[in-house]
Predict the 3D structure of the following.
Amino acid sequence: MSTPAGVLRDAFAYHAWAMGVQFDSLDGLDPEQLDGEIAGTYGSIASTLTHTVDADERYLQRLAQVPLPPIEDHGAQPLAELRARMTDQAGRWGDVLALLEAGDLHAAIEDRPVAGGIDPAESLLLNQAIHHGNDHRTQICSTLGALGLDVPDIDVWTYFDRERR
């Protein structure tokens, strides 16, 4: 039987897995392909991937109650650097979930015009991290497909078939 904590851990394990598969699919692309973009998406493949990793860092900082510097995304960063940051973040998500399970996680958001004054904000930040990652992974896959490049299979069914059986 699944537990609430186990379901949430699965969601973040999927998030890390899907990011890793997406990185694997981008490893062989040349800089021009990584600069590819289509209308209706965040931007180029590289900038969207950087934005996604940057955003996860901000969510993790908010959950750790670390004051945020001015919120700006980095310019597109090299895949190897982004992958290393994402791998580090995957471990930190596990730490956050352990705090949640222990009843020791607390976050508040006071500095956003749209979502300011939210306390507690743990649910918002955890849900936003999963949603945001899915949204931008989809945009990258759409861009890959529109450019005639291979699109990785990163849906949850595939994750469970490959990783959970």
User: Anything to note?
Assistant: The chain has a mean pLDDT of 92. The chain has one domain: 4-164. The helical segments are 4-26, 31-34, 45-63, 79-102, 122-146, 156-164.
